[in-house]
Amino acid sequence: MPKRDRPTMIDVAADAGVSLKTVSRVINGVATVDAVLVEKVTASIEKLGFRRNVMAANLRSGASDTIGLVTADLANSFYTSLAAAVSAVAVRQGYQVIMASTDEDPAAERALALDLCQRRVSGLILVPSGHDQGYLQHEIRMGTPVVFLDRPAVGATGDAVLIDNRGGAERAVRELVAEGHRRIALLFDSLAIFTMSERLEGVKAALTDAGHEIDPRLLATDLHTPELARSALEALLAAPDPPTAVFCANNRATIGAVEALVAAGSQIPVAGFDDFEASRLLPFRVRLVDYDTPRLGIAAAERLFARIGGDTTDPGVIVQPTHLVDRGGPVR
Amino acid sequence: MPKRDRPTMIDVAADAGVSLKTVSRVINGVATVDAVLVEKVTASIEKLGFRRNVMAANLRSGASDTIGLVTADLANSFYTSLAAAVSAVAVRQGYQVIMASTDEDPAAERALALDLCQRRVSGLILVPSGHDQGYLQHEIRMGTPVVFLDRPAVGATGDAVLIDNRGGAERAVRELVAEGHRRIALLFDSLAIFTMSERLEGVKAALTDAGHEIDPRLLATDLHTPELARSALEALLAAPDPPTAVFCANNRATIGAVEALVAAGSQIPVAGFDDFEASRLLPFRVRLVDYDTPRLGIAAAERLFARIGGDTTDPGVIVQPTHLVDRGGPVR
DNA sequence: CTGAAAGCGCTAACAG
DNA sequence: CTGTTAGCGCTTTCAG
Questions:
Q1: How many Å apart are CA A81 and CA A294, to the nearest integer?
Q2: What pLDDT, on the 0 to 100 scale, is given for residue B214?
Q3: Whole-number Å distance between alpha carbons of B294 and B232
Q4: Which residues in chain A come in under a pLDDT of 70?
Q5: CB A59 to CB B59 under 8 A?
Q6: What is the pLDDT of residue B279?
């Protein structure tokens, strides 16, 4: 390894013929330094190729200029939109973001979140994967602010930024019901996921209002991939007394459902949660529950930086609205 | 702020009635510690809620157990797939990833990369946005290994992991040419981007081989979004002597092109670089140049960890293959 | 097998 | 306006 020793501030001070502290002042842009010395120090820094060791600086000052972001799945565009938004806010504040992905594994969530705390991040944004964030309570008390994103925490006190899952699903299904549909296929991922159970509640509310009920035979769950959603809907379509409409609880379910319908030559109405790239290319009209993902990430980041900045108001929940959009069908 | 002082190893040592060093040994899992002392220390750690300060540990040992990842655009699924893959490899090695996005801004690239070096990341994976990475040469000499991803570096020495842009584009266009097409619309993003100019070279090679040439009037560039690609193709279709086929240099161009063709009721053949989510839902057959994005990220991460591990072989370029796939059309 | 002492590279107090 | 003196919390010598 060509790991020549990196020069330190001591080396710079020696080279410039000034004290360590003067070098520190120049590097930190303290105004009250003689211009001549600034010049000398700057020259030495350049000459030696000095680079301030941020880790050492942080050790002394306690801060760290990084925040942690733990999401459920970095390969999912929803979370990466959040990540991009959080990152943009952070960079603007002079912070960097350490990102980690749990792949929906509660044990990984715990390990990663605690690891980030050990790295003394200034704050943490977490999309809970498990159902117990009690392990964070201690860190929060110790002064690491935590904002929960997309799903609320259990057993830990912190701000939460969520979307209106229930209301969005309810409005979408209400439309299907208004058009006379009663037998609506429901394609869901695991109901253990907060957003899924909330959306199911919304569906239930819309049906109940119309005097209907959820038919458990039309409810498919644990559909992690478009492929699973597609097979699930194909099975429902092939069964006796098939559904006359479909509600998909996330974008992967919607993609799988559309594939199934195209393959079956069926055109029953589809509504789904989440918009997605290329949704406008869908071969027929699809109603989607949309929301502003970047805004969600921005809200979480702003909340976190408010806490880092010393905001000690009681933690609260921010719920972002959703709205129905029409996608697919004849391209405009 | 409820920032009670976090307990340090000194506090733990005092509580357990042992020396600082013994606590350190226990925490680092040194085997040669008396079981009774281990027990005592563990109990005190638990009781005080001690959390090792990784920053301080790293300061002394020089390492940092983090790697940096700088991509061009965290909102683009290509880069986030890379990020997910890199992150997975890193976590497996006990490292965390600090991610940053340049939004294709060379100045941001430089600032972010140098910032990460100041944080003493153990290594850096960088998707170059600018055309000069000379600023990194010094860091590399100082012992921070750098792997360039998706695009090669200029002015800096490091490993690079790329895909076969030229070959992929060439094969796709060769197919169109073989079917008798000569007037092929070319929808590109900025040719200043390495991958774009490489893909254009591939197109040129395929045409030249057949005795044709690129018609500059059929070449549209700087198409950053699907909307721009759509308008560009619409303009070409409306012009006299319109193209009889389309080659799209990335997935956003492909999406825009398909929109334009559907709107125009045209069915001229489309080939494009990059597969994308929902590509199978396209309303007609589209040939896409596909490649294994996660593998690309994995390759870069593995190269980086090899360097971190002390590999001092000469830096090299790894080129990953591409292949043509058929998407869209009748859903199978 | 354990502990005391000496730093890692920098910043925060104080003096001059 | 500048320099000296202590540390930040931990790991690393090197003796016991």
A1: 6
A2: 95
A3: 31
A4: 1-4, 330-332
A5: yes
A6: 87
pLDDT score of B5: 73
CA of A23 to C1' of C5 (A): 29
Which residue is closest, via its CA, to the C1' of D9? B56
Which regions of chain B are under pLDDT 50?
Answer: 1-3, 331-332
User: Which among B52, B87, B281 is the nearest to A283, CB-wise?
Assistant: B281
Residues of B in contact with A52 (CB under 8 A): 118
Q: Rounded CA gap, A86 and A125, in Å?
A: 9
Nearest-CA distance A49 → chain B (Å): 7
Query: Whose CA is closest to A249, among A278, A277, A219, A279?
Result: A219
How close B309 gets to chain A, by Cα (Å)?
9
Scanning every strand, the nucleotide with its C1' closest to B19's CA turns out to be C3
Superfamily (CATH) of domain A64-162+293-320: Response regulator (3.40.50.2300)
Q: How many CB atoms lie within 10 A of CB A196?
A: 21
- B55 with A101: Cβ contact below 8 A: no
- pLDDT value at residue A332: 43
pLDDT in tens, A182-212: 999 999 999 999 999 999 999 999 999 999 9
In terms of Cβ atoms closer than 10 Å to its own Cβ (0-12, 13-18, 19+), residue B295 is: middle
How many beta carbons lie within 10 A of that of residue B14, not counting itself? 16
Cβ of B310 and A1 within 8 Å? yes
- Spans of all domains in chain B: 9-48, 64-162+293-320, 165-290
Please report the pLDDT score of residue B331 as a whole number: 47
CB B49 to CB A3 under 8 A? no
Which of B162, B160, B169 is CA-nearest to residue B187?
B169
* The predicted structure's pLDDT at residue B4: 54
**Longest distance between any two alpha carbons in chain B, whole Å:** 89
- In this prediction, residue B308 carries a pLDDT of 93
**Measured between CB atoms, which of B59, B99, B141 is closest to A55?**
B59
CB contact under 8 A, A3 and B142: yes
CATH among 3.40.50.150, 3.40.720.10, 3.30.1360.120, 3.40.50.2300 for B165-290: 3.40.50.2300
Amino acid B313: pLDDT? 96
Measured to protein CB atoms, the chain D nucleotides within 7 Å are: 1-13
